[in-house]
Design a protein that fits this description.
The complex is a heterotrimer.
Chain A: H1 2-21, H2 25-46, E1 52-65, E2 68-81, E3 85-89, H3 96-103, E4 111-116, E5 119-120, H4 126-136, E6 137-140, H5 152-163, H6 168-181, H7 197-208, E7 215-219, H8 227-242, E8 246-251, H9 255-259, E9 262-267, E10 270-272
Helix pairs in contact in A: 5-6, 5-7, 6-7
Chain B: E1 24-37, E2 40-53, E3 57-61, H1 68-75, E4 83-88, E5 91-92, H2 98-108, E6 109-112, H3 124-134, H4 140-153, H5 169-180, E7 187-191, H6 199-214, E8 218-223, H7 226-229, E9 234-239, E10 242-243
Parallel strand pairs in B: 3-8, 3-9, 6-7, 7-8
Antiparallel strand pairs in B: 1-2, 1-4, 4-5, 9-10
Helix pairs in contact in B: 3-4, 3-5, 4-5, 5-6
Chain C: H1 5-16, H2 18-55, E1 61-68, H3 71-77, E2 82-96, E3 102-109, E4 122-126, E5 134-138, H4 139-145, E6 152-156, E7 162-172, H5 179-182, E8 184-189, H6 191-196, E9 203-210, H7 217-232, E10 239-243, H8 257-292, H9 294-302, H10 307-348, H11 359-384, H12 389-393, H13 406-411, H14 419-428, H15 432-467, E11 474-483, H16 484-492, E12 499-511, E13 521-526, E14 537-540, E15 550-554, H17 555-560, E16 569-574, E17 577-587, E18 595-599, H18 600-607, E19 612-619, H19 628-644, E20 653-654, H20 655-698, H21 700-708, H22 713-755, H23 765-792, H24 795-799
Parallel strand pairs in C: 3-8, 5-7, 13-18, 15-17
Antiparallel strand pairs in C: 1-9, 1-10, 2-3, 2-6, 2-9, 4-7, 5-8, 6-7, 11-19, 11-20, 12-13, 12-16, 12-19, 14-17, 15-18, 16-17
Classes of the chains: A alpha/beta, B alpha/beta, C alpha+beta.
Chain lengths: 274, 245, 802
């Protein structure tokens, strides 16, 4: 078992090395194909039947703790349509972070189904999840989570790098364009430590958009920001929604309610309907 | 009022007797804190003056970025003010260096963190004994007895010999409170103590705090939860670095 | 050119943590350089020393013969079994060197300096044929004596007459032992000059190259016996000794070849050890990088990185480290081999050709440098990239600990320790893999260190054991022999000398049961009540006076004649005389070669040399030897008296001089070994520093908590330092355990390489405790910097970042 994993790992390393050595031509060809197929794919997804981007069915998550089982989610059913700006509200410990981790498949459910953009993501294995996530959604964390040693452009480029989207030569341009979009292009060559928290969160949003995903998910994106900066970040999300991206924000900040097109409140692992 | 604080030699001149509650235990005079970030200056606190009397249960509320965590960090000496003075008893906290501060804080302020911060390799009992050892208080046998007693107080006597990871979040936080009480400090400072707990555990922790206040401890609690804040006798609301109530 | 972002992350991370990157790069470089140095040096020595040696038609056999003329060499060369034979005269004299200091010199006379065909030397300067009253000097001798071509040199012969010769040439002779090693200069003169020096014109040695397999010891010795039986003795000459040149060497080999081989082997083992230690350091550091970047791994996975992409990143990172390590290691190894080869060349007196790097050594370095690091990090990388995004990103507060193992179980039993000490102890065992590598490194260094001390102790013991066989103050050989009573009486006239013993020597062969004969064995006849030997008996008893049929043999003889044991009967043959004796005891080896001791009277009967002795051994106080100054005084008087009495012109030897000579040679070797052990200790210390640094780094938050609950600077520092010392002590205990066998192996290897003798092993307890002091010091020193860093941490920085 371990041996096989090892073998795969070694092979991974070797194949990467091989790619580096054989310059980038091969990849560029693949990418051209990929870019060709991108436009229709997005159109296609819009024309899909039920029009729901996210569908959660009887979702249950139980954490095993030394003090006993802790049910974080108690049978959640939720549908989110394309182009919605959904706010998930709730106190600490209510289960809202758990819920969002199910949608981003950062965590897996104890039972129930998670269908996002037509894929039953709870059935994927870790690597499939990583691939799927990289191509279909952008995640924004409370603590920004930029890679400290990379400059802003590189932080925005890295999702394209891992998923091989866009030709190598175009990635930097695209990253710059995204940084411009979040209003931070002038800092493009700085490292994250050199900019403020609000600016870091903008970069995180640009990174979430790198592979042009149909869905952006944010967990307490303004939890560490002062109120003015928080407002600016929400403005950015609103702009994304206007461009057709579906946005899901988890927050305990009531401010978000003013921006969202729809709100769900979670208490003790259940959705409280309004 | 000085009498309730430990002196440099680990002596508390007046036992645990209550002093008169009219003079302030904690006093901040025009305290400001400015962070120099690469993105520019950020004024976290702007000339805050404040007095807290012994035995008060004070909650500090405000949104993210309002300066509430900065305020409590300055009082506990975890951070230094850019300007102004902070006195706790007669001690000018702002003048102590990091090493002196650590020793002074160990004796006079018990800190309870949001994420418990128990040392993972020590048992619950050893975690509670640790501050006494570090500040060289009590005899060896005395430390053990006292730690046992404190764990009984927070209803964890049965968990004493377990490692922290065997405990639930609520239990860990109660152990952390027992640790904060180890050196019998007059002040307890806590930042979002229930932020990571379910509502039942949170309630147990709040009940403990109320008991401690009844015994004469002074408690400062940072929270963003309005409901929790209401349980304190006094609420200080912060917004953009200034007190707003 | 556009670069993949993940590759630029690798390079930027390397740059951000420069000191850590350098630690890995140097770890790889040190091990690989060591292996390169040793292998390349071995190859160059092989090429240059053995090359020069083989090129000059080396003699595989030396036969010492009674005075003869050069016709005998021709007759011997005429044998079918012999390729060439060359006559040589070897004569001892003294030469005046720098600062009016007299040195021993071996004077060599060859029949025809224009046609040297065995043991050919190379001319360095001047002329290659010495004229009358001229001398050629071996180049190292000339160098040490401070003489050049054209200089005049004073020679003193045994009869104390002095002569002045002119240095006509400087030659390089790889067949004589160099001055640096032997302490004896080498010169070449013509037979005319020798006569002028007052010596009779004859030769006394034959240097022989055999036909057939030159490397087969048995074959070579058989040819030697044939030459003696068919040519030399029938011509009326007497053969004193047939031997193979060198110090216990095999025929056809350079006289130091097995010693060099032994030494290179020891170094090779140390090189392998260095590679092991490097591997440990690489694993520890890469594990720490992975641990530190857990959150970043989680982020990368959250933006779409699949596992093989991430493991690939870290493996490529290691490959970059390897490449940079090789960049240092290859030139460093070459430089090291240059140093090692030159050291050897100086010591052993050979010329070094081009210092180059062979493809084989280069490939070895490349393979080790690239495969070793990647190989050892596969498991940590594999394990480190396995973590789920959830665990990587949402780890809040102090990290969760795994179930405690038996160590934790054991530690939880200690209840009386104060919590800070408890914390240090428990922390020690938290990262078990890292701890294991650190301890292995320090343990190996410790085992090596103690082994070097044990080697020293063993060498000392060995010398002391050998010293028991020369329990005299001074001894003097009497060439040709003299009457026993005269000799002893003469010696006893020296003031202070209270005991004088005359010993006799002969060469015998053992006639085996099947009628075949053994090789020649030294036969020693000594007084039944001898007091100048304190034999170390391995078995049986020492000679009992009045038992003329008893003999005692040494262990060297048993190596050659496996059937002999205590109680055996052996038939000894000296010339035509043949008698049977009983073996009653076996002695330890004492650098003598196979030897048989028997009572003096029995010796006389067997050899037919009644009342003749060849050596006189004297003692001032029976039962104890004198001080070195007193020994020198006695030796001088002994020489003087015997010269005046026309009994001997030889130089007397003292027990003290014997010890001194060996100690000097051993010290050089021990210093080289000690330097190696110190290097290992430094690498071990670096490993511990790295480990403690990583530990502190990972426990930043815990240290903040310690601060928050009242830990002073001193308390924070001591938590770290105590942990370092605990690690050091564990490694010491394990090292102590391992030092027994490792010391035995190293001491055995060294003694075998140097003395060509078996081991008499002694464990060095003082080495054990010296290492205890050093390792505790290493523990303290290597945790001081991390401890300082820990004490500098401020609570806010620690707790505020999330």
């Amino acid at each position: 078992m371990i041996y096989r994993e090892l073998q795969r790992n070694v092979w991974g390393g070797v194949s990467i090395l091989f790619k580096v050595v054989n310059n980038f031509e091969v990849e560029e060809n693949q990418e051209t194909k990929y870019t060709d197929s991108r436009a229709p794919r997005k159109g296609q997804s819009h024309s899909q039947g039920d029009g729901h981007l996210i569908e959660l069915r009887d979702l249950v998550k139980v954490y095993k703790t030394p003090a006993g089982d802790f049910p974080a989610l108690n049978g959640i059913n939720l549908k989110v349509g394309r182009g919605e700006f959904l706010a998930v509200l709730g106190k600490s410990g209510a289960g809202k972070s758990t819920l969002i981790n199910m949608i981003t498949c950062i965590d897996s459910p104890t039972s129930g189904e998670v269908i996002v953009n037509g894929a039953a993501v709870h059935k994927l294995n870790e690597d499939q999840k990583a691939r799927w996530r990289g191509e279909n959604l952008g995640v924004v964390f409370q603590f920004f989570q930029l890679l400290p040693s990379l400059n802003l452009i590189e932080n925005v480029t890295i999702p394209m790098d891992f998923r091989n989207t866009y030709p190598l030569g175009e990635r930097k341009e695209r990253a710059l364009h995204l940084l411009e979009q979040v209003g931070i292009a002038e800092h493009a060559y700085k490292t994250p430590a050199k900019i403020s928290g609000g600016q870091q969160q903008r970069v995180a949003i640009a990174r979430a958009l790198a592979n042009d995903p149909p869905l952006v998910v944010a967990d307490e994106p303004t939890g560490n920001l002062d109120s003015r900066t928080a407002g600016e970040i929400f403005d950015l999300f609103s702009a994304l929604v206007d461009q057709g991206t579906t946005v899901l924000v988890v927050s305990h900040d009531k401010e978000v309610a003013n921006r969202a097109t729809r709100m769900v409140e979670i208490t003790d692992g259940e959705i409280k309907t309004h | 009022m000085n009498s309730i604080l430990w002196d440099d030699h680990g002596h508390k001149p007046n036992g645990n007797g209550k002093s008169n509650g009219n003079t302030s235990l904690i006093e901040l005079r025009r305290v400001g804190k400015t962070y120099q970030t690469s993105a520019g200056r950020f004024d976290a606190l702007k000339g805050v003056s404040l007095e807290i009397k012994q035995g008060e249960f004070v909650s500090i509320i405000g949104k993210s970025g309002s300066g509430k965590t900065t305020l409590i960090n300055l009082i506990t000496g975890i951070d230094d003010p850019t300007e102004g003075e902070i006195f706790i008893g007669d001690t000018p906290v702002h003048k102590l260096n990091e090493g002196q501060m650590a020793a002074w804080r160990g004796l006079n302020i018990g800190i309870v963190f949001q994420f418990f911060q128990l040392l993972p390799t020590l048992t619950v009992l050893e975690n509670v004994m640790l501050p006494m050892g570090l500040c060289n208080l009590y005899t060896r046998a005395g430390r053990y007895e006292r730690a046992r007693h404190l764990l009984e107080l927070v209803d964890l006597a049965e968990q004493a010999d377990k490692l922290p990871n065997k405990l639930s979040g609520g239990q860990q936080q109660r152990a952390a409170i027992a640790r904060a009480l180890a050196n019998d400090p007059p002040i307890i400072a806590t930042d979002e103590p229930t932020g990571n707990l379910d509502s039942r555990s949170a309630e147990a922790v709040m009940k403990l705090f109320e008991d401690l206040v009844a015994q004469g401890k002074t408690i400062l609690m940072v929270t963003h939860d309005g409901d929790l804040a209401k349980r304190a006798k006094r609420t200080i609301a912060l917004a953009d670095g200034v007190i707003v109530n | 050119m556009a670069l993949h972002t993940r590759w630029s992350k690798i390079f930027k991370d390397m740059w951000s943590y420069r000191s850590r990157s350098l630690l890995v790069i140097f770890s790889i470089a040190i091990g690989v350089a060591a292996v390169g140095m040793i292998n390349n040096a071995g190859r160059i020595i092989q090429r240059d020393l053995y090359g020069t040696f083989t090129a000059g038609n080396p003699a595989v056999l030396e036969i010492y013969v009674s005075p003869f003329q050069k016709d005998l060499a021709k007759a011997v060369q005429g044998m079918r079994e012999i390729e060439s034979a060359q006559a040589r005269r070897v004569e001892s004299a003294s030469v005046l060197g720098r600062k009016d200091h007299w040195e021993d010199v071996g004077l060599n006379v060859l029949p025809d300096f224009n046609a040297v065909h065995v043991n050919q030397y190379n001319l360095q300067n001047g002329v290659s044929v010495p004229g009358t009253r001229e001398i050629l000097l071996e180049r190292q001798s000339a160098d040490k004596l401070g003489l050049a071509v054209g200089d005049e040199v004073t020679i003193e012969m045994a009869d104390e007459r002095r002569y002045t010769l002119t240095v006509a040439g400087i030659v390089h002779d790889v067949y004589v032992m160099p001055f640096a090693l032997l302490g004896e200069a080498t010169g070449y003169i013509s037979m005319d000059t020798l006569e002028w020096l007052g010596e009779a014109p004859y030769f006394n040695r034959l240097d022989i190259v055999v036909t057939g397999n030159k490397f087969d010891k048995d074959h070579v010795l058989t040819v030697g016996n044939l030459a003696r039986d068919r040519v030399i003795e029938p011509s009326g000459y007497k053969v004193f000794r047939i031997g193979i040149p060198g110090i216990g060497s095999d025929p056809g080999e350079h006289w130091a070849q097995s010693q060099i081989k032994g030494f290179l082997l020891i170094l090779q083992i140390m090189g392998i050890l260095a590679i092991f230690l490097s591997g440990g350091l690489v694993i520890n550091t890469v594990s720490a990088i992975l641990a530190q970047q857990i959150k970043q791994i989680g982020i990368m996975r959250s933006v779409g990185a699949v596992r093989h992409q991430i493991s690939g990143m870290y493996l490529i990172n290691v490959l970059v480290f390897s490449a940079l390590g090789l960049l240092i290691a290859i030139p460093l190894g070459l430089l090291g081999s240059w140093g090692l080869v030159n050291f050897a060349a100086n010591f052993l007196n050979f010329d070094v050709g081009q210092i180059d790097l062979s493809l084989k050594v280069l490939s070895l370095q490349l393979a080790l440098g690239l495969l070793m690091p990647v190989g050892v990090v596969l498991i940590p990388v594999f394990a480190g990239t396995r973590i789920s995004v959830y665990n990587a990103i949402y780890q809040n507060g102090l990290g969760g600990e795994k179930e405690g193992g038996w160590i934790e179980e054991l530690l939880s039993k200690f209840r009386n320790l104060s919590p800070p000490v408890m914390l240090s102890l428990r922390n020690t065992f938290r990262k078990k893999a890292r701890l294991a590598f650190t301890i292995v490194t320090l343990t190996l260094a410790g085992a090596m260190f103690i082994a070097v001390f044990s080697t020293r102790a063993s060498l000392t013991k060995q010398i002391n054991d050998i010293g028991r066989y020369i329990a005299y103050d001074a001894a003097l050989s009497i060439p040709g022999g003299a009457n026993k009573r005269t000799v002893e009486r003469e010696a006893l006239r020296i003031p202070g000398v209270s005991l004088a013993e005359g010993w006799a020597n002969a060469v015998a062969v053992i006639e085996r049961v099947d009628g075949s004969q053994s090789a020649e064995v030294d036969l020693v006849g000594l007084p039944g009540d001898t007091a100048t030997i304190d034999p170390l008996l391995l078995d049986g008893t020492w000679l009992i006076a009045g038992q003329p049929q008893q003999v005692v043999v040494n262990d060297d003889l048993l190596d050659e004649e496996a059937d002999i044991r205590v109680g055996s009967e052996i038939v000894l043959k000296v010339g035509e005389s043949k008698r049977t004796y009983q073996v009653v005891g076996v002695l330890s080896k004492h650098l003598s070669g196979p030897r048989i001791y028997m009572d003096y009277n029995a010796f006389g009967k067997l050899t037919g040399r009644q009342n003749q002795v060849d050596v006189v051994r004297v003692l001032a106080n029976p039962g104890s030897t004198s001080s070195s100054a007193q020994q020198e005084l006695i030796a001088q008087q002994l020489e003087e008296r015997f010269q005046n009495a026309k009994l001997s012109t030889s130089a007397a030897s003292t027990r003290h001089a014997f010890f001194e000579k060996f100690t000097d040679v051993f010290d050089i070797i021990l210093i080289v070994l000690l330097i190696m052990a110190v290097v290992l200790a430094i690498v071990g210390g670096l490993g511990l520093t790295g480990t403690m640094g990583m530990n502190v780094f990972e426990r930043t938050r815990e240290i903040g908590v310690l601060r928050a609950v009242g830990a002073s600077n001193l308390a924070v520092r001591s938590v770290v330092v105590v942990e370092g010392v605990v690690v050091a002590l564990i490694s010491w205990a394990l090292g102590a355990f391992l030092s027994g066998p490792s010391g035995r192996a190293l001491a055995g290897a060294v003694i075998n390489a140097v003395l060509k003798a078996d081991l008499s092993y002694k464990y060095s307890v003082s080495g054990l405790f010296i290492w205890l002091g050093i390792v505790v010091l290493i523990g303290v020193l290597s945790s001081l910097v991390p401890a300082q860093n820990a004490a500098r941490l401020r609570v806010r920085e620690v707790l505020d970042y999330e």
